[in-house]
Fold this protein.
Amino acid sequence: MSVALDEMDRKILAQLQQDASQSLDEIARKVGSSKTPVWNRIRKMREGGVIGRQTVILDPEALGLEACFFVLIRTSEHDAAWQEKFLHALLGRPEVLEAHRLAGDIDYILKVRVRNARAYDQFYQALIAEVKVHNVTALLSMEEIKSTTLLPL
C-alpha cells in the first residue's frame, strides 16, 4: 500500500524520529496542528507501512559491547540453499546488527557488535562452522564518527 506524504506528514515523521516518546499533544504543538489530525495521520502512516515498530536506542558501550566490527564476506556459493542457510545463521546471531548483500567484489557486509576481540573470534568461529564462506575480512571500527537512525525527509 503506497501512502502519499505531504509536508505535514513529513513534519510529524521528523518529530517521531527525534523522539517517539513525545505525547500527541507535544507533536501537534510542534507541527502546528491539533491532536486528532496528528493521530489520524500517524495511524494512516502505520497502516501504510511508512512507520514500522517503535523501539528505544541503547548505548552499546554502556552495555559492555565496546567492539564494532565490519565483516566483509566473499563466498563461492550463490545458490538459494546456501543463501537460506546463511540468512538463518545471521538471524540467529544477535551480535549481527546489520547485514547487506552487495554488488562488487564483496558479497556481504555485516555490522557486528561484541564485547571485545575474543568475543568477535567466538562469533567468527561459530559462523564459519555453520556456513561455508570463501573469505572473511574483519575491520575493527576505531571510532564511530556518525551513527543515526534519522532518515532524510
